[in-house]
Amino acid sequence: MKKLIVSYILLLISSLGKAQQDPQYSQYMFNQLVINPAYTGTKEALSAVVDLRKQWVAMPGSPQTGTISMHGSIFNSFGIGGHLIAESIGPASWTAAYADLGYRFKLGKGKLSFGLSAGVINYHVDANKLDYKNGGEPMLNYTGQRTRFDINAGFYYYTPSFYIGGSITHLTSPNLYSDNTTVTISPTVQKNVSLFFSLQPHSFLYAGKGFQINDNLVVNPSVMLKNIQGTITSIDVNCNFLLKNRIWLGISLRSGYGIVGLVQVYVTDKFKIGYAYDQGLNKIGIAGQSSHEVVLSYNFNAFKSKILSPRYL
Per residue in 232-261, is it b (16+ CB within 10 Å) or e — as a string? Predict the structure, then answer.
């Protein structure tokens, strides 16, 4: 079984790619279902999460993302759930609906879960919303929508104080847009150009470890590697602190982007509210200024104990 995990990790690192297309989440460690179907049912409680994100608030047409997810455990070993994603970026918007299934079993001191997610993506683009700055650039002539089937897969291993997970999204590489247009190079020269947009497989590999310093403090450092077709697009280094079993405070550094600060508060044992503030330090982050993300989560069955466990993230 260890060889199986190692082989999966090598697959994550060796898959091919160039640029991130999936939504960005700053509080993914508290809502792992949106990046890894193997997380389904591992909380062993019926859990619902709403995630709302506005990126680069000073930039017109910047990404806005909304996610709703729910999952729970059945028959001791299976997890079932689903999640919805809606995002808009400039003239394009897309919605996706997935059904998630996980199967877990005991392995050593923890449990190993494998997951599969299947659903559909509906992509809509409106060329009338485009504002062209250069007359010679390719112009979209298409306004319409396309729906495609999509599959995600992953693994997740966890103990009472440690977790490691990995996933690959868009295994079907769904083609969401294609168009042919003519570009004017000069008054006497024109060129035919094919424009297309397909979602490429995205790989996520992440791990975290919880350290209980005392009854009032838990420290949980974690790291995530994001990979798209062979290129590591970013590395997130995070550290979250749980104070008195009620308040999470965290900070993240994202390579090539900037810094993230977050806070999550247990309003009750079942209900939690979180907020993240991103400040990009690269050119687009400085131009777009800050990003904001709000997370609401609710567990319909209260946990039996508040022991140290990454599952309570």
Answer: ebeebebebebeeeeebebebebeebbebe
**Residue 269 in contact with residue 282, Cβ under 8 Å?**
no
Token pair for residue 135? 């007359």
H or E element in which residue 198 lies: strand 189-198
CA angle 81, 82, 87 (to 5 degrees): 155
What does the angle CA 164 – CA 168 – CA 171 come to, to the nearest 5 degrees? 160
- Spatial separation of the C-alpha atoms in residues 159 and 155, rounded to whole Å: 14
Please report, for the chain, how many H helices and E strands are present, in that order.
2, 17
The token duo for 244 is 């008195």
The CATH number for 2-312, chosen from 2.40.160.40, 3.40.720.10, 3.30.420.40, 2.60.40.10, is: 2.40.160.40
Name the residue type at position 121.
I
SS3 10: helix
DSSP state of 132: -
Rg, Å, the chain Cα set = 21
Instruction: Please give the DSSP secondary-structure letter assigned to residue 270.
Output: S
The per-residue pLDDT string of the chain (313 residues; one tens digit each, 9 = 90 and over) reads 444 444 444 444 443 334 567 888 999 988 899 999 999 999 878 999 999 999 888 788 788 999 999 999 998 899 999 999 999 888 888 999 999 999 999 999 999 999 999 999 999 887 776 665 555 555 556 667 889 999 999 999 999 899 999 999 999 988 887 776 666 666 677 777 676 778 889 999 999 999 999 989 999 999 999 988 766 678 999 999 999 989 999 999 998 888 999 999 999 988 999 999 999 887 777 777 889 999 999 988 754 444 444 444 5
Question: CA 86, CA 84: separation in Å to the nearest integer?
Answer: 7
In the chain, where the domains are located: 2-312
Q: Distance (Å, rounded) from C-alpha 70 to C-alpha 158?
A: 20
User: Sign (positive/negative) of CA torsion 191, 197, 198, 202?
Assistant: positive
